[in-house]
Amino acid sequence: QVQLVESGGGLVQAGGSLRLSCAASGQSFISYAMAWFRQAPGKQRELVAAISSGGNTNYADFVKGRFTISRDNAKNTVFLLMNSLKPEDTAVYYCAADRFTGLSNPPYWGQGTQVTVSS
Fold first, then answer.
1. Residue 59 CB contacts under 8 Å (≥ 6 apart), including other chains
2. What is the pLDDT of residue 102?
3. Maximum pairwise Cα distance, the chain
4. Angle at 7 between CA 57 and CA 42, to 5 degrees
5. Is the pLDDT score of 62 beyond 90?
6. Is 25 within 8 Å of 6 (Cβ atoms)?
7. How many C-beta atoms lie closer than 10 Å to residue 18's C-beta?
8. Beta strand pairing call for 108-109 and 91-98
9. Is 93 in a helix, a strand, or coil?
10. In DSSP terms, which residues pair with 5 in a beta bridge?
11. Which one of 7, 81, 105, 116 has the lowest number of neighbouring Cβ atoms within 10 Å?
């Protein structure tokens, strides 16, 4: 069992930056792939960025070059650094953890943190 708690969301102007954190409790954090998803009003949830247990990363095309995902296994925490934010990045951002489905259907989710980017 893994519990995930996100923090770091807020209101920022376009072009600004935010860093989201996701603190995980439970055992074997290092063995989990971690990811950030987002969901905007009226839209489906979408994958933003992911990091494997070994540290390999991948990003959605719409955030490449602007967002960076990282993890600190000693602190059971995953981060999402978001630079050059755009109004279309406004969404609730969710952290997810997965060991077996390749992030196609993560079993563990945080409660979400709101990110609002004003123009």
1. 48, 49, 67, 69
2. 81
3. 41
4. 80
5. yes
6. no
7. 21
8. antiparallel
9. strand
10. 23
11. 105
